[in-house]
Write a structure and sequence with these properties.
Helix content: 55-70%
GO molecular function: ABC-type oligopeptide transporter activity; ATP binding; ATP hydrolysis activity
Oligomer: single chain
Main location: membrane
CATH class of the largest domain: Mainly Alpha
Strand order of the largest sheet: 6-7-8-3-9-10
Keywords: ATP-binding, Membrane, Nucleotide-binding, Transmembrane, Transmembrane helix
Protein name: ABC transporter ATP-binding protein
Number of strands: 10
Number of domains: 2
Membrane topology: Multi-pass membrane protein
């Protein structure tokens, strides 16, 4: 059994009731599929007046004689009806019998499909639920190496492919094979000689079809990978549309996109060619067999007279009845190969090892009481250390500022404190407890993060701010907006806090977006604030508004301010100057200016900007 098939089983187990009924109704469908053709025999006999007269009720001699018992029982009633009411009534009975078998066959097919639909849709929901939970739980570092578009393609397209293709396995192992088995049993009862031809046809057909579908799984996997590339290009183009347009790079992105859809076209055409060949190939193989049967069986009826003509017509119907499931099996086996390729990509994400998880029985606390201690930490994204033997103490209620050139490791400190990444060596402790020992939920509850990029969602101002505290009242939201110096523009919006701000807050200016991010952090009301270059993307006027908001927010809080603009951190209790991952100077603004060192140079440079 394929590994990915085994992995789907736990998802399907939840729906074992539906699977049981699907199998039961498929068995009944297969049985009535054969009976619908067998029921044609008494109809033929009435039509051609070939029926033997059976005047006594037959005796039941066990399960192995059930076919002849059923036939004799039917003929007894046909004889009785013909003698009492005329042939028309006998004909009516046989027509009603044929209609009934076809009715039950289709009813059971419908019921089996209904139960299968519930399994497929249920598994689709559970897979998506589990996948989204995994995508959200995976650490930030995972997405620095992966294309978001590829993750989206797996979440949407590949999971769909699993749903559409995978559960054809139930058809492959129950419905179609049993239809063939029941038909062959009935055919052997009619003529053993003729059935030998069918046994020759099935393996030959199966061999040819498996040859055609051999490379299908690999091609499906490549097509799904290309689909991920395609979604990535679209997602990146939309995110960076201003850059694309301002650099007149539309033609480059169109070329990249068109190259991807051309590759996808070739792959899909190749997959489609093989898929489309399966059905006509199996049908043609079946018609060749029917032709041979017509010639050989015709001889048995007309020349040797060893086979009843009506039985031969029923036999041909049964032989043709094998073609439909054989065709369905070949199609389903192709679809399952597509499903296996898609499942492989889905489980690739579901099985990613998350390096940043809670340890067993993690430390939990709702308050911050003492200090943050960073002790001799080393951290590297690749091979080169971004932070080297870095140590720092942040007492409760103090504001510590980290300054330095880009790439000096300032933002890395924020990523390590919030445990987006883990240190390679050394430790970061809050109230004496290593952040790796804290419950992550509890740890992040203590912190408010305001980043350089104001990350807002396509929703109302209210719902964006509520992320900080989901049960907050409108009054609390407005109070937070006032602290963040944002209420002065929010109150003038057409719907106030209920105004939708567009994709990534596109309807607002940079300063307005940043003040909403600050309001979100204010509403959360955490004891520790981390401001990662919160004003560096703003113009001077917006910066003044945001600076006032930040000062309001930082009152009576422990704050770590990562700053590029030095004008924003002159009131800090301690300024730490960083260079290439190490501390080169630390002290207050005045102390550092007096040293006339790196900080002094940075201030001088910025005063001329």
């Amino acid at each position: 059994m394929d590994e990915n098939l085994k992995k789907i089983i736990p998802f399907a187990k939840k729906f074992k009731g539906h699977i049981f009924w699907n199998i039961t109704f498929n068995v009944l469908y297969a049985l009535f599929s054969t009976l619908s053709f067998v029921a044609l025999f008494p109809l033929m006999e009435v039509l051609f007046k070939m029926n033997e007269k059976v005047t006594e009720l037959p005796k039941y001699n066990g399960i192995w004689e059930i076919a002849s018992y059923g036939k004799n029982y039917l003929q007894y009633y046909i004889t009785k009806l013909s003698e009492e009411n005329g042939t028309q009534y006998a004909l009516l009975l046989t027509v009603a019998l044929v209609i009934s078998t076809f009715l039950f066959k289709n009813l059971f097919n419908y019921l089996a499909s209904q139960h299968l639909t519930k399994v497929k849709n249920g598994v689709l929901r559970d897979l998506r639920e589990k996948m989204y939970a995994k995508i959200v739980d995976l650490p930030i570092s995972y997405y620095s190496e992966k294309r978001k578009g590829d993750v989206m393609a797996r979440m949407l397209g590949d999971v769909n492919e699993v749903q559409n293709s995978f559960f054809m396995v139930l058809e492959l192992i129950v419905k179609e094979p049993l239809t063939i088995v029941f038909a062959i049993v009935a055919m052997m009862k009619i003529s053993l000689e003729l059935t030998v031809f069918v046994f020759i046809f099935i393996p030959i057909s199966g061999f040819i079809i498996s040859k055609i579908g051999k490379s299908l799984k690999a091609k499906s996997r490549n097509a799904q990978k290309e689909n991920g590339q395609l979604i990535s290009i679209v997602e990146e183009s939309l995110s960076g549309l201003k850059v694309v347009k301002s650099y007149n790079a539309e033609s480059y992105f169109k070329k990249t996109f068109n190259a991807s859809i051309d590759r996808l076209l070739r792959l899909n055409n190749s997959i489609g060619k093989k898929n489309n060949l399966a059905s006509p190939m199996s049908e043609f193989m079946g018609i060749v067999t029917i032709a041979v049967l017509l010639w050989y069986g015709g001889n048995l009826v007309l020349v040797d007279k060893t086979l009843n003509g009506a039985l031969f017509i029923v036999y041909l119907g049964l032989a043709y009845n094998i073609l439909t499931p054989a065709k369905a099996i070949s199609k389903a086996s192709y679809a399952v190969k597509n499903g296996l390729a898609a499942a492989e990509r889905v489980f690739e994400i579901l099985e990613v090892e998350n390096a940043i998880v809670n340890k067993e029985n993690p430390f939990q606390k709702e308050t911050f009481e003492n200090k943050i201690t960073i002790e001799n930490i080393n951290f590297r994204y690749g091979n080169e250390n971004v932070l080297k033997n870095f140590s720092l103490e942040v007492p409760k209620g103090k504001t510590i500022a980290l300054v330095g050139q880009s790439g000096s490791g300032k933002s890395t400190i924020a990523n390590l404190l919030t445990r987006f990444y883990d240190v390679n060596e050394g430790s970061i402790k809050i109230d004496g407890v290593d952040v790796r020992d804290w419950d992550m939920h509890s740890l992040r509850n203590l912190m408010g993060l305001v980043t350089q990029d104001s990350i807002l969602f396509n929703d109302t101002i209210k719902n964006n701010i509520l992320l900080g505290k989901q049960n907050a009242t409108d009054e609390e939201i407005i109070a937070a907006l006032k602290v963040a110096n944002a209420y002065e523009f929010v109150k003038d919006l057409p719907n106030g806090i209920e105004t939708n701000i567009g994709d990534a807050g596109g309807k607002l200016s940079g300063g307005q977006k940043q003040r909403l991010s600050i309001a979100r952090a204010v509403l959360k009301n955490p004891p520790i604030m981390i401001l990662d270059e919160a004003t560096s993307a703003l113009d001077t006027e917006s910066e003044k508004f945001v600076q006032v908001a930040l000062e309001n927010m930082m009152q009576n809080r422990t704050s770590i301010v990562i700053a590029h603009r030095l004008s924003t951190i002159q009131k800090a209790d301690k300024i730490v100057v960083m260079q290439k991952g190490e501390i080169v100077e630390q002290g207050t603004h005045d102390e550092l200016l007096a040293k006339n060192g790196t900080y002094s140079k940075l201030v001088m440079m910025q005063s001329f900007e």
